[in-house]
């Protein structure tokens, strides 16, 4: 799945600007996911939970910095735990509503309050309708 979030011009020295321009170690220590499953079976809601997770500490992430963008590729398959949850979710995904909030974690008082990079709601996903794009050279 691909999600796009657009920001206005970055504020110099802001946490988001330092995240975008930082190295992968800094980014991995700050990129946070807050999941929620407002609609789904009890077992899925318990498995996914709503506890914030520093994604860079849990799964492999590749960051690609361009002139006016930062691409963040999250490899869910790199984590046994994430794979287990995904296996549980895939069987019932058409019945689920899943919310995900992405933010940069603040570590100091000056970096608070944390601000969202973006949020998505995935509702009753039909995996069978997915299309693999054909990339041209």
Describe this structure in words.
The chain has 137 residues and is an alpha+beta fold. The chain has one domain (15-129). It has helices at residues 15-21, 24-28, 42-48, 55-58, 80-90; strands spanning 31-39, 53-54, 60-65, 70-75, 97-104, 116-123. It has a 4-stranded antiparallel β-sheet. Strands 3-4 form a two-stranded antiparallel ribbon. The longest helix has 11 residues, at 80-90. The mean pLDDT is 88.
Give the structure's gist in a few sentences.
This protein is α+β, with helices and mostly antiparallel strands. The chain contains 5 helices and 6 strands; from the N terminus they run H-H-E-H-E-H-E-E-H-E-E.
**Any low-confidence stretches, pLDDT <50, length ≥5?**
none
Q: Spell the H/E element sequence.
A: HHEHEHEEHEE
Overall helicity: 10-25%
Number of helices: 5
What is the radius of gyration computed over CA atoms, rounded to a whole number of angstroms? 16 Å
First-to-last CA distance: 22 Å
- SS class: alpha+beta
**Could you describe the largest sheet, including whether it forms a barrel?**
4 strands, antiparallel
How many structurally independent domains?
A: 1
Identify the strand order in the major beta sheet. 2-1-5-6
Strand content: 25-35%
Return the average pLDDT rounded to an integer. 88
Number of E strands: 6
Shape descriptor reads globular
Domain Protein ENHANCED DISEASE RESISTANCE 2 C-terminal: 1-126
Pfam families: EDR2_C
Protein name: Protein ENHANCED DISEASE RESISTANCE 2 C-terminal domain-containing protein
């Amino acid at each position: 799945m691909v999600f796009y979030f657009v920001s206005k011009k970055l504020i110099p020295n802001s946490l988001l600007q330092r995240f975008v321009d930082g190295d992968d170690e800094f980014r991995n220590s700050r990129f946070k996911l807050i999941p929620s499953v407002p609609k789904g079976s009890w077992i899925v809601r318990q498995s996914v939970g709503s506890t914030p997770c520093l994604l860079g500490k849990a799964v492999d992430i590749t960051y690609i910095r361009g002139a006016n963008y930062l691409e963040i590729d999250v490899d869910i398959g790199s984590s046994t735990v994430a794979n287990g949850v995904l296996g549980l979710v895939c069987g019932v995904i058409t019945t689920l509503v899943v919310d995900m909030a992405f933010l940069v974690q603040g570590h100091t008082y000056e970096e608070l309050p944390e601000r969202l990079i973006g949020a998505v709601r995935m509702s009753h996903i039909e995996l069978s309708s997915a299309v693999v794009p054909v990339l041209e050279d």
